Amino acid sequence: MTIQQLEYLIAVDKHRHFGNAAESCFVTQPTLSAQLSKLEKELGVILFDRSKMPVIPTEIGVQIIAQAKKVVSESKGILELVAQLKGDISGTIKLGIIPTLAPYLLHLFIRRFLEKYPNVKLEVQEMVTEEVVRKLKNDELDLGIVVTPLEEPGILEKPMFYEKFYAYFSKGHELLKEKEIRPEQLKKEELWVLQQGHCFRDQVISFCDQSLAGHKNFHYESGSLEGLRNMVNRYKGLTLLPELATHELSEEEKSRLRPFVGTAPTREVSIILNRSFLKQKLVELLYTEITEAIPHEMTSKAHGKIVRFK
What we know:
InterPro entries: LysR_HTH_N, LysR_subst-bd, WH-like_DNA-bd_sf, WH_DNA-bd_sf
Oligomer: single chain
Number of domains: 3
GO cellular component, one term: protein-DNA complex
Organism: Algoriphagus lacus
Family: Belongs to the LysR transcriptional regulatory family.
Domain HTH lysR-type: 1-58
CATH architecture of the largest domain: 3-Layer(aba) Sandwich
CATH superfamily of the largest domain: Periplasmic binding protein-like II
């Protein structure tokens, strides 16, 4: 049994197609198939049901693939450990980040990070939290930047900063006469929220303590905060915006922001990773770069009251 055979095994499980798996591993299909057949013979089990299209792992194959992912991950960790001991800051970080953070956070730190560490390659994918967690567990990502707490088994959370929520109103809205807003003042028929799957949607609904789905006057859900902001600007109503999303608003738009009364509702933003992840030095460097790029007051947990998911 070799590490290469286990990598082929994982590739077939990912692509569910021998040809595509071989292409992703930069080998010919006969080479990949031969190595997997050799592995099956050595183990004395059948790992894939080849009669199905797409191919699927057998029951025992599922368990062996899970173990293979751990072995391959640990083997790569040896190289990472050696590099760290030598003081070599290099490697690839595959990072997943949620859409309500990506447009407002990435530009604050990426350029400086890559200038400091030119031998580090940063591959960023935008996706919802559920997908970030799934890909972390499947070793398709190294790190995630999401809203926590998740309390997900096997996932380590490293909090970085805390974002307040602000109410954002359309021009001439009656609540603009208020300096601060109470949650009970928000009318559910006026509130624009993100579509299903976005954690910020869940936090907004949890905070407002209202059920929006199916309301006769509520018929639009956006996939981005920019979409919500544009709808508020163009039509009537309101939405909630996290703090970083408010920093680049125009002065006129900022005049239509209102804080909440008392301790501000807040979301916790963290780096998350698989507990077995071994690129600890890169995690520390990325963590430092992000927290230094964020306004100092946002790095304190006392910044507000964390709104949990429902």
